[in-house]
# Entry
Amino acid sequence: MSIKKDLDKAITESIVKIIQEPLIYFSEADVQQQLCDSIKSIFSLSRLYPTSVKRGKGSKSVYKTSLVHREYGGGKGRRIDIVILDKKDLLEIDSPNLTKKGRYLKPKFAIEVGTEKTKDTRTHIKRDLEKLKKSTNKGYLIHIYKDITRAKSGTLSRQKTEEKIKNNFKDIFSTIAVEGKINVIAVLIRTYRNQARMRGKCEIFNNGIWEKINVNDKKKIESKLMGVMN
# Structure
């Protein structure tokens, strides 16, 4: 039975946590860890499964491994941020490097992650999409941009910040071409504006449009994210 529904839910739960408590991540590695922790809460992904790697010469016992891995090989020197392997493929692993005849397995699902610390978002996204297209049956591209600028609405500084975010993040997702087997989740979070109230603390990219979502409306955020992945 496919775990796609459970995986979508786990990813959604992670992103909701980040939206509501954006300071839980400092770097892309933190986002990856948050996602992995949530994904491994799925029962079938929390267990270890046998490989074909013997524990020793003449041994009938074999080593086991997880279905979930970070920085797994994607071929041609590439690494995939997070992969979920297929249970039946693990039996074909014949090397401690988790390969079959020297080649990495094709993940059942693969996830690539980016944050506001990505230097060149357009190039990063292009490479991630190409990697996902070639390396997996089903992929997720997840980018989260945390705006920490303090400038208030209506100020020149805020105007310049919004132009930067638009040019370097929001417009990129409006123009990229994505295949059906890849889900794109892009989220903008404004965390630190120096004013009592504001609209648009969170925006989620949905079908070509950036939609403003109340960060306190957990059900609506969940519904929107699940809709993006279906």
Q: What stands out?
A: Residues 4-229 form one domain. The mean pLDDT is 91.
